[in-house]
Design a protein that fits this description.
221 residues, 4-stranded antiparallel beta sheet, 12 strands, 24% strand
């Protein structure tokens, strides 16, 4: 996964870089609007964090320019909180809007949310497995298996990034939402139920526990 941070405040840009890298992103940065547009076209990121008050080109102009050729999810970052500014950013093609100072945990949840919404085909296929998030249908070895919505969302989230390890807290944030107040055992219970449906179906993929860390959807290299 790749993220582009277009932000002229060095401290904020560095903070975002550190947190995004911790989440598994490769991070690109630009300190002015024109450089941001050029970097977006070069790096082809999966998500863009875009400040509004930028030198050379402001964030609105950057957003408009990027939208002419790319559908990459854009989250606007700004100290402004007026409704008119939010509306203008969204009308320019932004996918979400976060006001500074922001809570990093919330921002990360929003990043993953816009990325999930931007996926063109909510359908993943592996050997003897199809996960269709549009119809919320799970097909295992050619047979449709009744699966509750949250189990489907958890499996899709893991399978969308094969071999990436997620902590339980990351999964709670990104699947259940940053405002969910349950504990990590919720994840364990859902993983257990999914394994009952999936284990032994194929030797090319599996739901794996990474002891002391969390879970991953492991596929053969």
């Amino acid at each position: 996964m790749k993220a582009l941070v277009i932000e002229d405040d060095v401290n904020i840009a560095e903070l975002l870089r550190l947190y995004l890298e911790k989440e598994g992103f490769t991070v690109y940065t630009a300190a002015d609007g024109a450089a941001g547009v050029a970097e977006a076209k070069k790096a082809q990121p999966d998500v863009i964090l875009l400040d509004i008050m930028l030198p050379v080109m402001d964030g609105w102009a950057v957003c408009r320019s990027i939208r002419e050729s790319m559908k990459t999810p854009i989250i606007m970052l700004t100290a402004k909180s007026e409704t008119l500014d939010k509306v203008q950013g969204l009308e320019m093609g932004a996918d979400d809007y976060v006001t500074k100072p922001f809570d990093v945990k919330e921002l990360m949840a929003r990043i993953h949310a816009v990325m999930r919404r931007s996926v063109k085909a909510h359908r993943l296929t592996f050997d003897k497995l199809e996960i269709n998030l549009d119809s919320y249908e799970l097909t295992v070895d050619g047979k449709k298996v009744e699966t509750p919505p949250k189990e489907m969302e958890l499996l899709y989230h893991l399978a969308a990034s094969p071999n990436r390890v997620y902590t339980r807290n990351q999964l709670l944030d990104e699947v259940w939402g940053f405002d969910y107040f349950g504990d990590s055992r919720t994840v364990d219970v859902h993983i257990k139920r999914l394994r009952e449906k999936l284990e032994g179906v194929s030797d090319k993929w599996a739901l794996k526990t990474v002891w002391g860390v969390g879970y991953k959807f492991e596929t053969a290299e």
